[in-house]
Design goal:
By secondary structure, the chain is α+β, with helices and mostly antiparallel strands. The chain has a domain of 95 residues. The chain is built from 12 helices and 8 strands. Strands 1, 2, 3, 4, 5, 6, 7 and 8 form an 8-stranded antiparallel beta sheet that branches. Strand 1 and strand 2 form a beta hairpin.
Length: 397
């Protein structure tokens, strides 16, 4: 890299790192608070909650890295225009590639970070997180539930036991109202905590399942000899899917065990997870190129930096949202795997072509209308902003 490229890269990676830290912290706090109900009256659960919450960080980081790259790159490019450096660079005869190279390097670094998390760190952290939840739920059922009392262990999930002897529970009742359409009640004469391949399962013996429809109140009763629950969420694991696709290594997703129940009954789940791991890193590169398209051209201070950031985020969010939709449709048809790959690759190709043709988005009529609309909205709400009012008060004094 030249001195100018290193200068822009240093500024962009600084902004991206700050954006990444802020986004991860916000999302992590929300996710951790959503799972605060796993803390029970046990000292072990209270001691493990911080460690379990930390296991959320890798996947959360991989999810927000593309947006951190986008925000950091646009901020760096906007700062060049704000400081009148970008017009000087253009006047000196430097090509658009001088601006694009450090931003592309930032996108590649973000993509490599996502690949590292997706294929190595992510599966291990997901497994550690789920095993921590299973361990806490197992301790809650066998050690800390009071016999004869109905305890709410999760929102919409009530458990009662008759007695507990080690890993064996007598007279277990589980009332599950988490589903929006059906209430489920499980009765079991006996239940046991079973360790299998480092996974914890709750096996119910000799019991009944009562299903009540919330729409018409109809009740059906099913008798069973054995019934398996995944202790991570206390949901049925009758199809052997207690080892989630997110917990499996990439090797296991590409070449699954032919005897694995999940690969036999729901192979599309493994395909969806593998596709997500293989395509997510491409969004970091696509977003980096998109940042150059929306903010890489020289602009005057009158044009402002807000429209570039707003348009960049709208484009990034739109692309990622479509990616989520196509990913969720993989279970219906394999063609959506190809669409999921094609989506970021098409964005990369289109953005690269626009950059090579030196396309100036700020001269596009639609961009000008968007910028004018943003200015008018800001002008309209400006007098109502608290900092404006305080500034006027200070000026009056």
């Amino acid at each position: 890299m030249t001195l100018l490229e290193r200068y822009l890269f240093k500024r962009a990676i600084t902004y991206a790192a700050a954006s990444l830290a802020s986004l991860v912290l916000i999302v992590w706090i929300v996710q951790a608070l959503a799972r605060i109900d796993i803390i029970k009256t046990s000292a072990s659960a209270a001691g493990n909650i911080f460690w379990i919450a930390l296991m959320l960080l890798p996947d959360l980081t991989a999810g927000v890295v593309p947006f951190a790259v986008l925000i950091g790159a646009i901020q760096a490019l906007n700062s060049l225009n704000t400081d009148s450096e970008r017009p000087v660079i253009a006047a000196s005869g430097a090509s658009q590639s001088v601006i694009a190279k450090p931003i592309i390097a930032l996108g590649l670094i973000g993509g490599l970070l996502i690949l590292l998390i997706a294929h190595i760190i992510g599966p291990a952290s997901a497994s550690a997180f789920q095993n921590g939840i299973r361990s806490i739920n197992a301790d809650t059922i066998t050690l800390f539930l009071q016999p004869g009392r109905f305890e709410r262990v999760q929102p919409g999930l009530v458990v009662s036991i008759g007695a507990a002897r080690g890993s064996t529970v007598e007279s277990l009742v589980i009332a599950d109202t988490r589903d929006a359409t059906t209430d489920l009640t499980y009765f079991a004469r006996e239940a046991k905590i079973l360790k299998q391949d480092d996974q914890s399962l709750l096996l119910l013996y000799d019991g009944q399942l009562h299903r009540r429809s919330k729409s018409d109140g109809g009740i059906s009763v099913i008798e069973f000899q054995t019934y398996a629950f995944d202790l991570a969420e206390l949901k049925p694991a009758t199809r052997g899917d207690w080892i989630r696709a997110s917990e499996r290594s990439t090797f296991a997703l590409i070449w699954p065990d032919p005897n694995d129940a999940l690969s036999q009954t729901r192979p599309s789940v493994l395909t969806e997870e593998l596709t997500d791991r293989m395509t997510n890193w491409l969004y970091a590169l696509a977003f980096a190129l998109w940042a150059v398209v929306v903010a890489g051209q020289p602009r005057t201070n009158r044009q402002g930096t807000g429209p570039a950031m707003a348009l960049g985020l709208i484009g990034g969010l739109g692309l990622k949202a479509i990616g989520f939709v196509t990913l969720s449709l993989i279970e219906e048809s394999f063609i959506w795997v190809l669409v999921t790959y094609a989506l970021p690759l098409s964005a990369i190709t289109l953005n690269a072509v626009l950059i090579m043709r030196d396309f100036n988005l700020s001269r596009w009529s639609l961009f000008e209308k968007f910028a004018n609309a943003s200015y008018q909205i800001g002008k309209a709400i400006g007098p109502w902003m608290p900092f404006r009012q305080s500034a006027r008060g200070a000026a009056g004094r």
